[in-house]
Amino acid sequence: MHAPDGFINAPVSAAAGLVAVGAVAVSLRGARRELDERTAPLAGLVAAFIFAVQMLNFPVAAGTSGHLLGGALAAILVGPYTGVLCVSVVLLMQAVLFADGGLTALGVNITDMAIVTTVVAYALFRTLVTVLPRTRRSVTVASFIAALVSVPASALVFTLLYAIGGTADVSLGKVVTAMVGVHVLIGIGEAVITALTVGAVIAVRPDLVHGARGLRQRLKLRVNGELVDAPETGPEPVPVTARGQRRFWITGLAASLVLAGFVSFYASADPDGLEKVATDHGIDEKAREHAIADSPLADYGVEDVDDARLSGGLAGVIGVGVTVVAGTGVFWVVRRRRTGEEADVTSPSGTSV
Amino acid sequence: MGAGHAHKLYRHGHSPVHALPPHTKLAAVFAFVLVVVSTPREAMWAFAVHAGLLAVVAYTARVPAGFLLKRLLIEVPFVAFAVLLPFVAEGERVDVLGLSLSVNGLWGAWNVLAKGTLGVAASVLLASTTELRELLLGLQRLKLPPLLVQIASFMVRYGDVITGEMRRMRIARESRGFEARGLKHWGVLAKSAGALFIRSYERGERVHLAMVSRGYAGSMPVIDEVTASRAQWSYALTLPCAALAVCLLGWML
């Protein structure tokens, strides 16, 4: 699924690149919260693991076999931020070393394969874990569903990018059907493998599974024949203050909106055109009609340069929108989980990227 | 990493291309690919010239054509997609050898094939003339966040170790009579993957402790700063500049 160069046009690739850069920057900060100063070696080794496990072939039938994509697995095992970082680094190295995926398509590849899979999988996983009973089995079930959804979600985002900036003229309906159809099948395989792998890790080292941290049983002491909770001895993981996170969150949102706004402002000579393109892309019939029209979207005619630029701005705004929605989901879930255990609020350790 | 640890995509050599500082090469390849992507697809001759430019680089770097072509095979999945395009795309159709093909689809297929192939070829040339360590130094020099470079360097440094561990686990499975044939064997493979994760994570913890005991405090010391002279920069940027001229001609003609 690694997109090569020239598959998505330049403005959309650039917009996806911006989204990728922003997400990686946020993840670099977040990963320090998840792993503190052990970030570099641990994230590096987990990236090496993802890289290796992608080579592990799972036979399906009659000589065919599939392999893991790893986004959901990384998110559940080591947390969303580290997961995004690991998969992004794997993609970067694949592009630079193995020429797998184009250099200019790196933003597109990171956006749909590292960010979307990880964020969707983790948001879904967290929601399910909070809803389901707190047992190991529900962690396995949650990871199954999270992985199952993450793959078609990634395919959908890829299709969206393709609809805005694809260089070939295929009707949107066909692309959606083909991409989602194929990726639902791939997603089932991914889900089974992810759930089995998470289950295998939980059976041996449940403390290593980031997604199962809330499941730790409290130590009970038998005092005079009665079971009582042991007093907490170990240091609690330092919770990040809501205010610090919120400030960081607002800054990031403002920055991405300014960027996207700048791109679209630069792009749109005619503000009404933006809406027109939006409707053109939103509706399947219109897209088909557009394709039959003499000037195709992906052509490089004079009017179409305008078109392409507009799509660039549009992609920026849509990208920010998707990121905001997904990010808010994660943020909300994480905060809801934390409010319970937030006994004392200490200031965040002053990390800088 | 000594001589024995060069990645297998690297071809040892002493050509002028090998001698260039890594960040100039990275910048040149990236700029070249960018220019190729923005070349209009109607200007077919321009892509031939781009390919010619790459051939000149390959000749200067003494990378044999066979090696380059073999590495281009990575593209095959997208070639399959490109072959499908003329059949499924919309728009007016032409008859070629009795098949009804879409004109837009043909253009799209050509676009993906030409640009994708040139991009892959440029990346292959970069990887085959630049050592892994140099590539990482180059990325660091190009202002990639140091933490990201560290993660990437740990990934490539331990990639072979983890892959080797996976290979040994496979040999252990096979020597006990296990052969993965179908869905019912996924459980065993997934347990291997889980064990591999635990081993990787624990190795990471050990590596971190070893680093801390040697004075690691969050950043790696830079021993060999790579620098590039103006002459080296201009030599490296000849490729994208030539390509840019071709691209501009393509737009004007």
From TrEMBL, chain B:
Keyword terms, alphabetized: Cell membrane, Membrane, Transmembrane, Transmembrane helix
GO biological process, alphabetically ordered: cobalt ion transport
Official protein name in the record: Cobalt/nickel transport system permease protein
InterPro entries attached to this UniProt entry: ABC/ECF_trnsptr_transmembrane, ECF_CbiQ, ECF_transporter_component
Superkingdom, natural source: Bacteria
Topology of the protein relative to the lipid bilayer: Multi-pass membrane protein
Transmembrane segments: 43-60, 72-89, 109-127, 233-252
Cellular localization per UniProt: Cell membrane
The keyword Magnesium belongs to this UniProt entry's keyword annotation: no
Pfam families reported in the protein's UniProt record: CbiQ (PF02361)
